[in-house]
Inverse folding.
């Protein structure tokens, strides 16, 4: 590198000269963190300025006679085709290997997140399907109960305190914690696990027998 005009001298380092000078005014202070109750370092850039002077890029070989004059060394522009570009001190092979490693990492991460999303979606759909089947089963039981009650009313054979499931036996179970009295012992034993109240669908924690006099 050969300076075309007068070189730039550093204001803080003695006998330090160059063709590109970058000045940064930075504030450094300690800030109290109310969450961790610790003092943390805080840095804030107040001002930045870059000074340049034209210079020539000359070959290290003597007598080459080839030089490139740089007028604006920091005027960096992307390619006209809109493609990405990299400014790095590494050689091409090292940069290519680094980019390929990044691509492999993101591919693996995408596959992992894809499997996790599919698993979550499967469990959500399974839960919704089970709830849908329970609602359909409850609706079917309510329809059968309504039809049986209508038939009993028409035939004058209404059974007092009849089980809402079989409509043939007398209610003999009190479901807790909801407190509904709606089932006989045989129908309670036939309920699928986990056992739920046929009326409100709340879980049955325990059953108290009901004795009819």
């Amino acid at each position: 590198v050969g300076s075309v005009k007068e070189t730039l001298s550093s204001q803080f380092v003695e006998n330090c000269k160059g063709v590109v000078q970058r000045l940064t005014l930075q504030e450094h202070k300690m800030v109290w963190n109310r969450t961790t109750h610790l003092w943390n370092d805080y840095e804030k850039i107040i001002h930045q300025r870059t000074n340049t002077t034209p210079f020539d890029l000359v070959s290290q070989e003597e007598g080459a006679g080839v030089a490139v004059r740089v007028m604006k060394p920091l005027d960096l522009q992307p390619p006209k085709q809109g493609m990405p570009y990299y400014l790095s001190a590494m050689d091409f092979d090292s940069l290519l290997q680094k980019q390929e490693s990044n691509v492999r990492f993101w591919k693996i991460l995408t596959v992992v997140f894809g499997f996790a999303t599919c698993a979550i979606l499967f469990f959500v759909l399974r839960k919704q399907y089970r709830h849908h089947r329970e609602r359909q089963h409850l609706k079917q039981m309510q329809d059968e109960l309504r039809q049986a009650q209508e038939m009993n009313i028409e035939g004058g054979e209404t059974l007092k305190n009849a089980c809402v499931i079989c409509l043939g036996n007398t209610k003999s179970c009190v479901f807790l914690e909801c407190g509904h009295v709606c089932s006989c012992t045989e129908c309670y034993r036939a309920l699928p696990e986990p056992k739920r109240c046929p009326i409100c669908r709340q879980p049955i924690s325990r059953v108290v027998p009901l004795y009819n006099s």
Notes: The first strand starts at residue 2 and ends at 3. The first helix runs from residue 92 to 155. Helices lie at 92-155, 185-190.
